[in-house]
């Protein structure tokens, strides 16, 4: 064999090795992330300890994982392989816990299970609401004089700041009006869309006001007929006067503020027809959307946000009714989901 032939063969081998490494790298990048475990699972996120405990109690074949201080529990719940995490209250905690879950486990669908404050006055303590979409109306542009922001020239244009006002029918959504002597005055708080980057819309990204729950999961939720409790397990003497029900549809909202303001609650209902408010789900929904993972959220009404006029509020704080009902619906959904998957086989 000549020297040139030997060098050519070595060069060819090197090229083949590099090509194989490149192919493997691309294939790895296309695979779902699973830094800790790669078994396909449904990811479940809850904010309060009581919410998660009711689900963990019924999870079988449990294994705990500690990731950056967070406890993730894998196992089988109502026949479904799951991974459950307690995020802790707040938008930031929900974001971090959900992204950690997606990075470390092969999560094919996401589910949020917990309690929330009521916004729609027609809903009652113990009702379980499954919104079709989730928004973050407390992401705002706070204008100084209450007029429509015009930072970039035209009224409503804030694009030069990398922002976009939330609109409806081409017009900026109205700002929150503060109660004052003689009437209402503008707060200057105008809702914004959220910026989100995905593999599909990169590098420019996109602005969205809300994130849609998975239609297949919503359709299944509409078929559920769970038996919801009127009295919670902690204090059976405290019961609601109206039988709780499961309601699927409408808009849920989330924000960084613990909402205890009846005037702002009314604004959210009248402006957005919001059903309930919490401090986690919309952030969870944005992470799900950014990662291309279908999601659904079950939230049970604990009280009327900022309202002392909610007669059944004691039933939540005294008996644990709300978390009991949301867990019942979550479990019923998981059981129905398992049966639906079996029918497809």
Automatic annotation (TrEMBL):
Keywords: Signal. Coiled coil: none annotated. It comes from Herbaspirillum rhizosphaerae. Residues 1-29 form the signal peptide. InterPro entries: Nucleoside_phosphorylase_d, Nucleoside_phosphorylase_sf. Residues 41-316 form the Nucleoside phosphorylase domain. Pfam families: PNP_UDP_1 (PF01048). This is 5'-methylthioadenosine/S-adenosylhomocysteine nucleosidase.
